[in-house]
Design a protein that fits this description.
Layout: H1 2-54, E1 61-65, E2 76-80, H2 87-94, E3 100-105, H3 115-121, E4 125-127, H4 132-149, E5 152-155, H5 173-181, E6 186-192, E7 211-216, H6 227-243
Parallel strand pairs: 1-7, 2-5, 2-6, 3-4, 3-5
Antiparallel strand pairs: 6-7
Helix pairs in contact: 1-2, 1-3, 4-5
């Protein structure tokens, strides 16, 4: 029955998903040209709202927790696990108050309606994973941006998607570069629980009726720990939460 419902509802889901991206590509362009950053940011927030709500068409339950733990008035470094290509709209909507920016591979910065436009014009770091120097330079620029404006930067330190939901070992270079450029940033460990289960039947169809949960863990003051100890603390706290 679950597979049947998945096949039945996925065409409707992807139709609306594609329409949202196409419509908001134009909306983003007009907002940026006519209203600058502030208007563009509002258009991206609205797009993420519709993208998140679109998952209800395939019976998904959606729950956000722990966002009341986040203080205002300082830069944030969101350390998140990564389970699917659908993670980002949920991060964007959940953290919308904090102007979230991303570290994205260069391949996503071209050819994708709305997604590529926002990455290129919304302040995210676009990195070439084959060029370590360029990657670190772009991440440092992002760190400076969040430091100056009290924005949030989201990094997936696993480096790739965990398709089975198991947390992969963290890579420290990106976190190190962000902290160096944004020394007053607060670390926000963020857990994505069940997005990987959307893909239990493969890339298509997305699974019907999954309960999607997103949780902010206790924020961490990074200057209280040496770098490697800090990264181990973040990773262990997230791994413990995911293993429960």
């Amino acid at each position: 029955m679950k597979l049947y419902l998945s096949h039945l509802l996925n065409p409707i889901f992807f139709l609306f998903f594609g329409l949202i991206l196409l419509i908001f590509h134009l909306v983003q362009f007009l907002c940026l040209k006519l209203g600058g950053y502030s208007a563009h940011k509002k258009s991206v927030d609205l797009m993420n709202f519709f993208l998140v709500q679109n998952f209800r068409l395939i019976g998904s339950g959606i729950k956000f927790q722990g966002f009341d733990k986040i203080p205002s008035g300082r830069p944030l470094i969101i350390i998140s696990n990564h389970q699917s290509n659908f993670d980002v709209p949920f991060i964007g909507w959940g953290f919308r108050k904090y102007h979230p920016k991303y570290i994205s591979k260069i391949e996503l910065a071209k050819g994708l309606p709305s997604v590529s436009f926002n990455l290129k014009h919304g302040g995210s770091a676009i990195i070439d994973r084959k060029n370590a120097r360029q990657s670190l330079r772009e991440i440092s620029k992002l760190g400076s941006l969040i430091q100056e404006n009290n924005y949030a930067a989201c990094i997936f330190p696993e480096g790739t998607r965990g398709k089975d939901g198991i947390l992969k070992p963290f890579k420290e270079s990106g976190i190190k570069s962000l902290l160096k450029a944004a020394p007053s940033a607060l670390i926000i460990p963020f857990i994505i629980y069940c997005n990987y289960r959307l893909l239990q039947f493969g890339k298509y169809p997305l699974a019907f009726g999954e309960k999607l949960q997103y949780m902010v863990l206790e924020p961490i003051e990074p200057n209280e720990y040496p770098l490697m100890e800090l990264i181990k603390k973040i990773e262990s706290s997230m791994r413990l939460e995911l293993d429960q």
